[in-house]
Design a protein that fits this description.
The complex is a heterodimer of chains A (about 425) and B (about 550).
Chain A (H helix, E strand, L loop, with lengths): L9 H5 L2 H24 L9 H5 L2 H24 L7 H23 L18 H25 L3 H32 L11 H23 L5 H20 L15 H35 L6 H4 L3 H33 L8 H21 L6 H24 L11
Helix pairs in contact in A: 2-4, 2-5, 5-7, 6-7, 6-9, 7-8, 8-9, 8-10, 9-10, 10-12, 10-14, 12-13, 13-14
Chain B lengths: L1 H14 L2 H20 L6 H18 L9 H30 L7 H5 L3 E7 L5 H11 L4 E7 L2 E8 L3 H25 L1 E8 L3 E9 L2 E20 L5 E12 L2 E9 L4 E3 L2 E10 L3 E8 L6 E7 L3 E3 L6 E8 L3 E3 L9 E3 L3 E7 L6 E6 L4 E2 L2 E2 L3 E5 L7 E5 L7 H16 L6 H16 L7 H14 L7 E9 L2 E9 L3 H20 L3 E9 L4 E9 L3 H24 L1
Antiparallel strand pairs in B: 1-26, 2-3, 3-25, 4-24, 5-6, 6-7, 7-8, 9-10, 10-24, 11-12, 11-23, 13-14, 14-17, 15-16, 17-18, 18-21, 19-20, 21-22, 25-26
Helix pairs in contact in B: 2-4, 4-7, 6-12, 7-11, 8-9
The chains are: A mainly alpha (about 425), B alpha+beta (about 550).
Chain lengths: ~425, ~550
């Protein structure tokens, strides 16, 4: 058996060794600086003012000092103990932090295209720049899905790359559009300002981005390109839903109802979408499995079979996605319970949303038991991943549309 | 005795079985779903109307209207707890033992079964001790053990050796959370208290099944004030109550609460949950419709009933709202929210009258800058769900218009009944002169149109008078939720353990690796084998990288 050299790309090299480690230290210092500002900055912490504080001179001093100290200490550390530069936590996290920094830079750049403040009003939000960025995201995601589907029929490396690059572009467009909306909500009125996870339109953008990021991470690690057609089709469907929401006037920035005015919203909602996004990817892997097993059972000689992950790998990928989603979803549900106990007086009220979150949790819990303890594999579990996604879909969309309850602010009006 | 033991063992084995656990998970999921589709804890009459006699009683006997507290649902949860406990009790000692003992010198046969294998042959002059040292260097990140058997050296490396703790933590965490929930239900409470501004209360009420229960608190809560803030665009921004806690007759704490920011006293947390009218003082003017032009003033309060001994008509005041924000846009137009001002709601009853609910606005209805007169809304069903607007035409806040109406009726009668346009015109001029003298109001033409409207609408009113809201002194009640939850910290502990356990389970797989170095005819044979219980894809990469590393080390050794 030959030992194949793991193919390291340019990107992998960037996050290894001293440059990667020093960057990691600098990021860490920057984050600590921002946290320090929140706790000890002059004027104290105010949820509404913090963002402005962060981008003022004071914020620059805090974050800049943090970054310099972090960078310097990691330089010293890596000189003293060179082996520390390969620490898993640094090499794994630094590319994520790079991505986050790039996203922030992009947003800062795009925010220069906002109309002058006198032109921004609550009543007419059509001139806000985020709308155009979201439109870019829509187009790019749909293009990506189309490329991945084309890749199934014509598995040329170029077409696959096109899909991947478009997907990344979509993630950055979507991410920066959400950050822009955050900024815009404050431009409209500081009283209205809130994190962009408060209505269906915004969380669907988040869902598209999270699903794509989870998928792209798996794609890069496990060369699972042909799975993209399935995952990105789901993302494209979400994009079409978002376009429809915008067409019925659900896209505007609205002030928060009192129940949502809490820092918990910023934690609970995105965490939930890490779960939902991963479950969507698991569904994509499940569909890819069913597709491949169908082709194989027919004795097909399609070219795509050569580039597609094997049945065993697809099975593993679905599991992998659930393994990301399940702990994240568990944590998100617990965070939701913590918020509920602070806002409604009880951590559990059998509210439809809560109950369906429990049902989703039980569904994937049963999936994991069936797989790990009962040794189930293959088609049955692939179907389970698809069915589990339908339950998830009902939990975060169906409940809002058909059932009433404490979460009814996510409702379509 | 033995038999009993045997069957007990069998029962326990069944209870702890995975099949039962998965079955319980599935049944729980389905049962929970039923409770979300069927709205819980609604009015019994609504259920009866919705399902009809037969299904109402079937559902009710199954407890489906308060499903999550029925004996059978709780039994399901208890089953889950028992199953978890048995599962833990049976497996934990096993797992602990497995984590403690690690076999190093394993048989060739079991070595062959591993998924990941590699083989080297080091020729000539390779020294066992040297190679072993090199191998240990290559495996520096692994927790190593070594043993010798039949001349071969066995090296065993482990990573994530405590993986099984993940199972133990996650499963006991679920058990702990369920126990916490049980403590919450049995030793905690959660109920509502409505306190009008300026008053205090010490009793909460809550629903159990279909019955309302009451519970006394060890202190009183006084609501000093309640305030709503609005966004410029209309929707509410903040509900704020200023509360004082009174313990043994003394104010011990005064604090504001808003949604998401409760206060805590003696282990009881107090939340802002709702609000409503706390019995506002209401002044109504009753405009008599008997032609006498008389107006009488009535002072009452919300939730009180005023009755008129003369006519037998009564007004039950049900609600008062200082803001009534409504969408003024027609269908298809962009939404246009406007505040119609204060309004009072009452049910009007009387001999020969159909009881209806009425909403009387204090201000005249102004549409696109034009006064359209006083607005009433009438709900024929009496429950306020089918309000229909009823425009009087007259603006009753202006006493001159009330006078004008009567002057017009008289004048019309004197010129022949006001049946023709000409007569009406004449009568209108006469009435104007009588009421306003020579100073005609500027919008007199508009007034004329509204007067004609009043001639149509007022005779259609069956009541002896039109009640109009003229003054109010608003008092809110604040709807508080009071809870005590001794199980909460248990639940949080369980939650932390659950997340911790899941992270260990999913992200710290147990990886094992063996290197067996044995002397061969020429040089040394090295067999490597690895296995993992999770993340086989990731492990494949890791194994290959490790083999590469060892390869370079051995190659370098060979060349020296």
């Amino acid at each position: 058996m030959s030992v194949a050299l793991a193919n390291q790309t340019m990107w992998d090299n960037l996050s290894h060794g001293r440059p990667g480690f020093i960057r990691f230290g600098a990021y860490l210092g920057l984050i600590l600086g921002a946290v320090g500002l929140a706790f000890y900055g002059s004027g104290g912490y105010d949820q509404k003012q913090y963002l402005f504080q962060l981008f003022s001179g004071q914020g620059l001093i805090w974050c800049g000092t943090g970054a310099i100290i972090g960078g310097l200490s990691s330089t010293v550390l890596s000189t003293l103990r060179p082996s520390i530069t390969e620490a898993k936590i640094a090499t794994n996290l630094v590319s994520w932090l790079d991505g986050a920094a790039l996203l922030l830079l992009l947003t800062a750049l795009l925010s220069q295209f906002e109309p002058p403040k006198s032109m921004i009003s609550f009543d007419d939000q059509s001139n806000l720049f985020s709308g155009r960025v979201i439109m870019t995201m829509n187009i790019v995601f749909i293009f990506s899905a189309a490329s991945y589907i084309a890749y199934l029929f014509a598995p040329e490396a170029f077409i696959g790359k096109l899909g991947t690059w478009a997907a990344w572009a979509g993630v950055y467009a979507g991410g920066s559009s959400l950050l822009l909306r955050w900024h815009e909500s404050y431009l409209i009125n500081t009283d209205i300002g809130h994190a962009p996870v408060s209505n269906l339109y915004e969380v669907f953008i988040l869902l598209c981005c999270v699903t794509t990021v989870v998928y792209l991470t798996l794609e890069r690690r496990y060369q699972a390109k042909a799975m993209g057609a399935f995952v990105m089709s789901l993302v494209a469907a979400a994009v079409f839903f978002d376009i429809w929401l915008a067409s019925v006037g659900e896209a505007s920035i609205k002030p928060l109802v009192p129940a949502l005015q809490s820092y918990w919203m910023k934690i609970h909602v995105p965490m939930n979408f890490v779960g939902y996004g991963s479950f969507s990817v698991a569904c994509g892997a499940g569909m890819a499995y069913l597709f491949r097993s169908r082709l194989e059972s027919r004795g097909s000689k399609a070219r795509v079979l050569a580039v597609m992950p094997s049945l065993d790998q697809l099975d593993q990928l679905a599991y992998k996605a659930v393994a990301i989603g399940f702990p994240a979803f568990t944590l998100a549900t617990i965070l939701g319970a913590a918020w509920a106990s602070e806002a409604w007086g009880g951590y559990w009220s059998w509210d439809p949303k809560e109950t369906w979150a429990l049902i989703v949790w039980l569904t994937y819990g049963a999936y994991l038991h069936a797989r790990v303890s009962h040794g189930w594999h293959g088609r049955a579990l692939a179907w389970w991943a698809v069915a589990g996604f339908l339950v998830t879909l009902f939990c975060f969309l169906g409940v809002n549309m058909y059932l009433s309850g404490l979460h009814s602010y996510g409702r379509l009006s | 005795m033995n038999n009993l033991n045997e069957s007990l063992k069998q029962v326990i084995a069944r209870l702890g079985s995975m099949t039962l656990a998965v079955a319980i998970l599935c049944v729980l999921a389905v049962a929970s779903a039923i409770g979300t589709v069927l709205l819980q804890n609604q009015e019994q009459t609504d259920y009866l109307r919705q399902f009809g006699e037969l299904w109402y009683w079937t559902f009710r006997s199954l407890g489906l209207f308060d499903m999550y507290h029925t004996w059978w649902f709780l039994t399901l949860l208890a089953f889950l707890m028992v199953s978890l406990a048995v599962c833990l009790w049976r497996n934990v000692p096993h797992m602990l033992k497995e984590m403690r003992t690690r076999k190093v010198a394993i048989t060739d046969k079991s070595l062959k079964t591993f998924h990941h294998q590699h083989h080297w042959e080091l020729a000539d002059g390779a020294d066992m001790a040297d190679v072993k040292r090199l191998a240990e260097q290559g495996l520096s990140e692994w927790e190593l053990m070594e043993a010798e058997k039949e001349g071969a050296v066995y090296l065993r490396g482990d990573k994530g050796r405590f993986h099984k703790w993940g199972y133990i933590l996650a499963h006991s965490a679920v058990l702990i959370i369920l126990i916490g929930g049980w403590i919450s239900v049995h030793y905690g409470f959660r109920g509502n208290m409505s306190v009008p501004e300026g008053q205090s209360d010490n009793e909460i009420e809550f629903l159990r099944g279909t019955a309302v229960h009451h519970l006394k608190m060890p202190f009183r809560v006084r609501c000093n004030s309640f305030h709503i803030a609005f966004y410029p665009s209309g929707p509410p921004k903040e509900f704020r109550s200023n509360l004082s806690i009174i313990d043994h007759g003394k104010v011990v704490m005064t604090k504001d609460i808003i949604v998401n920011e409760p206060l805590k006293y003696k282990g009881v947390r107090i939340f802002q949950a709702s609000f409503g009218d706390g019995g506002s003082a209401i002044t109504l003017k009753l405009f008599n419709l008997d032609g006498s032009q008389k107006v009488q003033t009535v002072k009452t309060h919300v939730y009180q009933t005023w009755s008129d001994p003369k006519t037998g008509v009564s007004l039950e005041i049900t609600n008062f709202r200082p803001f009534n924000i409504q969408n003024m846009a027609g269908p298809g137009e962009p939404k246009d929210f406007e505040d119609l001002g204060p309004a009072v709601e009452f049910i009007i009853r009387g001999p020969g009258l159909k009881p209806v609910k009425v909403k009387s606005y204090m201000n005249p209805f102004v549409y696109k800058g034009q006064n359209r007169g006083t607005l009433l809304e009438v709900s024929e069903s009496g429950d306020g769900k089918d309000y229909q607007p009823f425009l009087l035409g007259l603006d009753l806040t202006n006493p001159k218009e009330w006078q004008l109406f009567h002057a017009f009726v008289h004048a019309a009668a004197s010129v022949g009944g006001g049946n023709t346009q000409q007569e009406r015109f004449k009568a209108f001029n006469a009435a104007l002169k009588q009421v306003y003298g020579d100073k005609r109001p500027k919008d007199f033409q508009d007034l004329g149109v509204r007067l004609l409207q009043a001639m149509q609408s007022l005779p259609r009113i069956p009541w002896p008078y039109i009640p109009l809201l003229v003054d109010y002194d608003q008092v809110y009640y604040t709807g508080l939720q009071l809870t005590e939850d001794p199980g909460m910290n248990v639940v949080w502990t369980g939650s932390i353990l659950l997340v911790l356990g899941l992270c260990i389970m999913f992200y710290m797989p147990h990886r094992k690796i063996w290197l067996v170095i044995r002397p061969a005819a020429k040089g040394l044979d090295i067999d490597a084998a690895g296995m993992t219980n999770r993340n086989t894809l990731g492990f494949e990469k890791e194994f290959q990288a490790l083999m590469n590393k060892l390869n370079t080390i051995f190659e370098a050794h060979k060349s020296t």
